[in-house]
Structure formats: C-alpha cells, structure tokens
Amino acid sequence: MSHKLENYLRTYRKRSGLLQDEVAFLLGCQSGTKVSRYERFCRKPSLETLFAYEMVFGAPGRELFVGAYQKVEKRISNRAQLLARKRNRATPDRMATRKLQILKAITSGSGTGPDKLS
Amino acid sequence: MSRAYTKDIRVLAIDPSTRGFGFAVLEGPNRLIDWGVKETKTDNKKKSLKLIEDLIDRYQPSVIVVEDYAGRGSRRCQRIQELIDEISKLALKRKVRVRSFSRVKVKQAFAESGATKYSIALAIANRLPELAPRLPRFRKPWMSEDYRMSIFDAVAFGLTFFHVDSKRKLAA
Q: What is the complex's ipTM, to 2 decimals?
C-alpha cells in the first residue's frame, strides 16, 4: 500500500469548498501561502493552527494529519516496548505492575487516558 | 458497480485535454483525495509532464491510470496520444504501475448509470458529492465540452480501475 499522506488538509478544504485565502483568513494568516505550504507538506502547523483546523473542518487532528499521527504512534509504541522491557527487570510491586499495564496498553494502541485506567 | 474493491491503493488518474489535463487522486472507490484541472497555455507536453511529475511527488501513487487510446471507442489526437505515451514512460521511470482503460471499458464499469459521458459524470457526482458543484450543465449539440468534464473523465478512469481490480480479485 502507498503509505498514508502526511496530512489531508487539501482534501478536507476542497470538500468544504473553501479557498486557500479563506482558510488563511479563518486561521488568522495574512494570505493563502502558508495554507498552501501546509497542504504541500512543506511546513508543519503549530499546535494552535492544528486546533484551528480541527474547528474549521470539524475533524480530529489524527484524521487531518494521519501520516504524522501514524509516525508518532509507531515511535511511541517502540519506546513503550523498550521501557516495558526495562521495567520488567525491576522487582515486581503494585506500582511496577500498573506501569507495565499502561505500557502494554500503549503498545497495543488502546491508549492510557485517565478514563481507561482502573 | 460491485462493493468489494481494492482498498488502500492510491491511484492517480489522468485525462489529458485541449487545455491541459484533468486529474483525480483516489484512495479507494469512495475516497477522493484530490481533483482538478491543470492548465497549460504553451508548450503543452513539457509543462503537462512537469505538473504530472509534481503530482507523483506529492501523492506517491501506487498506480497511474490513463486512457487506452488504441482501445475500442477511443478517439484521441496525435498530441494526446504522444502525451499518454510520455506519461507511461514517466511512470515507468518513477517505478509506478500504469493501467490503461478504453472508453468501452469505462462504459462497462458504469453500465448501471448509462452509456453517455454525461450520465457517467452524473453517477460520479452522486457517488462523490464533493464533485457535484463541479458538474457542468448538460451539453447541447452546439456547445463545446466544458473543461471541467476532464475531472469527471479522470475520476471515471480511477473508478474503472477499482471496479476491474475487484472483479479480478473475486474471480481469483
């Protein structure tokens, strides 16, 4: 499979029928140049811009920036595995078991939000 | 069209026209990623190839779909035929698979919708609502073809690819 694109901002913008200049206005940029750079994967948006995009297109960041999200997900999963291996060597107690549970959840991709921890 | 399609393949469909070319990028039969018309005022072939190369760089497609100009039902001028050949060469150079379909094959894929170009475009606009605003009005015999029809032709080629591929997989 061709891997996912870095972002799908252009797709969402075209679906909404907005022009680059109009999106730029909504984001608070001077012109559509910056928007064009985001769409051509030449520039990464700031956290504030990401939230603005979420609001404009009504889609979560992980859907707008699928490729970028997948890269981060893979990296974190690898690190969680490494950390779990390190913690496995330590003497088992309640805290260590809990940490291992969390790391396992990260590796499996189910996440560790406060609602997911028992 | 059947519903079992090849998923997770990014397809770049190109339909050269007098103005330049229409293109569509699809990630499955129901997911249109990008579409549009690229215009080339002068030096059509060279400029078109440069623009297609940019699209390949940006979208890194697995397959490029073009028209089989030698197939049944296709009538394309010498310049377009040469451009399609050049696109195939470019794709080979960039190690991207090329598939070509004749007009008859496209009509077969859209057999349920009707055999005319406009009925196919109408079916596409119904299937992919984001394209509905780009659908030109019905062409009268004295009118020349709207430039936006090349978008619908490109999408039709892309969807034909998914249709043919799914049929091949079902037969295997």
A: 0.85
